[in-house]
Amino acid sequence: MRELKWIKLDISMFEDEKIKLIEQMPEADTILIIWVKLLAQAGKTNANGYIYLNENIPYTEEMLATIFGRPVNTVRLALKTLRDFGMIDIDEDSFIYINNWEKHQNIEGMERAKKLNAERNKRYRERKKQQKLLNKTSRDVSVTSHDGTEEEQEQERRKKKEDKEQEQPQTSAIIQFWDSNGFGLNNIQGKNQLLSWLDDSSFTQPEKIIVKAMEIACANNKRQLNYVEGILRNWENQSLLTLEEIENNKKEKKKQSAANDGYHYGF
């Protein structure tokens, strides 16, 4: 799963009077490095400035010393200094948190990332369920008694068909499109690889967006997994994470292309 990968640092942070005062201390460089490490750790925890191992276990000075690769006494000095300057605080349960975190960080963006992570977890569970059904379907072999009558055999085939339909009422539109458009009916590995984008991407509607990429691949007669994944990676790299953004980007490119053509022809 993808986690929060960034935090914001004020480009004028070294002009802050607290930082200037810290820079005059004997362990100034180490204290400032630990300050930045605490900021990064708070971003990783993604809990409105709190820093902890989990919601029930706060970090101790010894634990932070191990994580930051610094002596315990140095970490203890840094925590005391940062607390004295009001840059961090420690609550009654020993949980460390960054003061004014919401002032310096994009809380809305972090909450969005947190929500996306929860959605990815949900999609991951759903994908595992679909893969299990997909693998089971691929192993199914039509076994009918040779001694049975044609009517019994037909009933058996009908029952298996109904069972499959009941098993996969929510069969991914991705698999349906894949099977119906020549991507390789028996390419189970390719299907599973594409299904991994359901929970391993930043798209807000991953299933619809993946199908959109497959439609483009078909339109270009490129029914290969790597071509579809190339489209998806391009969209992610351009931060086109919704169908609306993808469509708007397509329209914008058409406008630019038309404008360029008009320029070349003297319009």
Automatic annotation (TrEMBL):
Q: Name the SUPFAM superfamilies for this protein.
A: DnaD domain-like, Winged helix' DNA-binding domain
UniProt signal peptide = none
Determine the domain of life of the protein's source: Bacteria
The Polar residues compositionally biased stretches are 132-146
Phage replisome organiser N-terminal domain: from which residue to which, for each copy? 6-126
**Compositional bias (Basic residues) spans?**
122-131
Query: Which part of the chain is the DnaB/C C-terminal domain?
Result: 191-248
The region called Disordered is annotated at: 118-171
Q: Which family does it belong to?
A: Belongs to the DnaB/DnaD family.
Protein's name in the database: Phage replisome organizer, putative, N-terminal region
